[in-house]
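Sample entry (159 residues):
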Amino acid sequence: MNHQEKQSLKSEKMKKLIVTLIVMLVPVLFYAQGAFDKFNDIDDVAVIVVDKSMIDLAKEMKVGKSEQDMVTKFTEGLDNLKVYSTEVKKYKKQLKAAVKDYLRDNNMKTLVSVKDDGEEVKVYAKQTSSDTLDEVLVFVDGGDGDETLVVTFTGKVKL
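Predicted structure, serialized as tokens:
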């Protein structure tokens, strides 16, 4: 086997490896973006999605200097914000299960956990450096009578 044939064989193996890796990673990438999308078309679940262009508009709001600084700092690296809310017991359970699965699969750490009078609030984050959050998930379990709420922020949020 000559040198050119060896190079061709290495190139083919590398292409197969790259294709295999892409095929393995695609479901993970889509899952991360679509874990809660199944709730988008359910009438009893309120959904709010704020994308990058709308977030950028928030920076243009005319408010006081200190408020503007706070809005700019928070929204600077934010890519999107999603809110899912329901008071229907069936969907509250489904949201809770979806959050549990998402946290397990995405290696998020608990930042804050508060339990008071039957309500529970938990804030989770995925952090790649000591001063940057890549994703924040807030889960509010209102208990039997109140609504359950999931809020997700994605992007690069500086602390």
